[in-house]
Amino acid sequence: MGIGGSILIDPVAFYAGTGIEVGSQIALRNELKAAAGFLLSVGLLATVITRLRSFALVTLGLINGTYGAARILSFMADGVPNSTLVWIAVIELALAAACAASVIHPKKTLTAATA
Fold first, then answer.
1. Are residues 44 and 88 in the same domain?
2. 3-state SS, residue 25
3. Which end of the chain has fewer CB atoms < 10 Å from its terminal CB, N or C?
4. From the CB of residue 16, how many other CB atoms can be counted at a distance below 10 Å?
């Protein structure tokens, strides 16, 4: 939710940290905010609506897993970008694994998170 919300509020500042220059391109800002809105809404589903939590966690896992995997493929095809984007890929893959663990073992991950 934090990533989606941050991009919605200020995509220029968010992407500046990764070395991506958004600038004043209105169409690019629009595209970035559209994807960010989706990320934010799925994150909200996972935290607010209990009966949709498993669906939202699977969706978040797929999103983060495919983002992370696509970044790794891009690193191999295009070269490794700055360290911030490498860390983002690692975090996305870790989030995907956490979502998978939460769906497969919901009581264990809930107990471990609250302990």
1. no
2. coil
3. C
4. 12
Q: Could you tell me the CA-to-CA distances from 63 to 30, 36, 77 in Å, in that order?
A: 19, 12, 21
79 belongs to a structural domain = yes
Q: What is the pLDDT of residues 54-73, one digit of tens each?
A: 888 899 899 999 999 999 99
Same domain, 55 and 102: yes
* Token output for 77: 């095809």
Rounded mean pLDDT of 20-40? Answer: 90
Handedness of CA 97, 16, 38, 75 (dihedral sign): negative
Q: Amino acid identity of 20?
A: I
Q: 112 with 102: CB under 8 angstroms? A: no
**Domain interval for residue 64:** 50-107
Residue 94 pLDDT exceeds 70 = yes
pLDDT of 32-53, one tens digit each? 999 999 888 888 887 887 788 8
- My answer on whether 25 and 74 are in the same domain is no
